[in-house]
Amino acid sequence: MSSMKYKNNLENNNNKKIINKITIFILTIIFILLVFTLGFILGRLGFNAAWQNGEFKYSLKGRLYPEEKSIDFDLFWEVWNQLESTYVEKSLDEQDMFYGAIKGLVLSLDDPATRFFDPSETLEYEEEKAGKFDGIGVLLDYLNNKVVIKEVFENTPASIGGLKDGDIIYKVNDEDVTGIEIYEVVKKIRGEKGTIVKITVTRQDQELSFDIERDEVYVESISWEMRDDGIADITVRRFTESNISEFFDLWDKVVNEVVEAQPKGIIIDLRGNGGGYLDGAIYLAGEFLKKGDVVLYIQDREGVKAPQKVTRSGKLLTLPVVLLVDSGTASSSEIFAGALQYYQRAKVIGEDTYGKGTAQDVIEPESWNGASIHITTQKWLLPDQRWINHDDPVNPDIKVEVTIEQIKKGDDPQLDKALEQIKSEM
Q1: 3-state helix, strand and coil shares in percent for the chain, rounded to the nearest 5
Q2: What is the pLDDT of residues 184-234, one digit of tens each?
Q3: What is the CATH code of the structural domain delimited by 219-425?
Q4: What number does CATH give the domain 132-217?
Q5: What phi and psi, each to the nearest 5 degrees, are found at residue 421?
Q6: To the nearest whole number, what is the mean pLDDT of the chain?
Q7: Hey, where are the domains in the chain?
Q8: Is there a contact between 228 and 200 (Cβ–Cβ < 8 Å)?
């Protein structure tokens, strides 16, 4: 019995050893899989750890992409790794690569108004919206596939540096800008105050280069003058100031001065006006249209159209009005022009407008460290419910184009036609 008992105990011990080995093997496999999975996840999350100055330090950034997305995101990281391991320049800026990837994502929507701005671009946008920016002080136009200086503002680096109306900008910092989108050219010209930008122009078949030191430039959004012929000439360069209240106050000040001067007619110059606050367009329209008139419809992503009406009694309801527009007239300024044209309250003279009937929400969470995204969330429709876009902008009642030669000579055939029209209505 004792021998049999001994054998059974030996057999049980052997079985336990086998089971223990199997258990250890399985646990080892599980442990390896857990380590691999954890490593994969931490890699995705951007986990970094190091022993520095006798202290364990770590950082964790980002998060896994949403599970409901079926796209294989491994390609992104494979391309990223390829760039890091094979690109000729070893010192790549990961932050620039990251922002560049986000911009590419946004650009895939093929909507130039939906844009991602890095922190420096966001700051630049805010300053530009308020009329303050570091640049040289010129108004550009696009004629015959060429970037033309339409106006050099007084007492700016451009005027001091020698640039003139009618100069054709050929290069910026030795980079050919022929055929480039005008807003991209503007971006290349602007820069930090105190830095130098080299502008190469053609003037009377000569190529001239100017090294111009950028400075802070401020251009008032609204200005006006009373002409000797009794016509008030109001220029609205943008529908913004530091805030909407300041814009309203400035407009009210101008209107009060105009009313006091008792003009026989009014010309409003919207050329080069890239827009701004939609409420600004509605407010200005209320100066000329009847209370209750629909200025525009706002259409959301569900297709719901909300009318935006005049809610006040204006002071310029009866005077004849002519509006000047061109290809730089965009967004809110197009709404203002299109509404007055629809109600036959004003004649529109000049060129087809830009065609931007959309509004963007600006999203700028604190966690983005100054970066922002502008997302198109609305369409703007004129009172006839026509959506303004590149293929269907505001068309002038009287089309008058301007040539480069006329700009060089200081001629303004569009203004001349506006004066002719307003005098015929006085």
Answers
A1: 35, 25, 35
A2: 888 899 888 999 999 999 998 899 999 999 998 888 899 999 999 999 999
A3: 3.90.226.10
A4: 2.30.42.10
A5: -65, -45
A6: 86
A7: 19-60, 65-108, 132-217, 219-425
A8: no
For residues 53-78, give the mean pLDDT: 62
Give the side-chain half-sphere CA count within 13 A for 392. 9
Pick the range with the lowest mean pLDDT from 38-52, 118-132, 167-181, 196-210.
38-52
φ/ψ of residue 422, rounded to 5: -65, -35
Tokens of 385: 């419910």
Cβ proximity of 392 and 358 under 8 Å:
no
Local structure of residue 292 (DSSP, 8 states): T
pLDDT in tens, 354-400: 999 998 889 999 989 999 999 999 999 999 999 999 999 999 999 99
Check if the beta carbon of residue 149 is closer than 8 Å to that of residue 396: no
CA dihedral 258, 259, 262, 268 (to 10 degrees): 40
In angstroms, the CA 240 to CA 12 distance is 88
Contacts 24+ apart (CB under 8 A), 38-43: none
Would the pLDDT of 58 be above 50? no
Do the first three CATH levels of 132-217 and 219-425 match, i.e. the same topology?
no
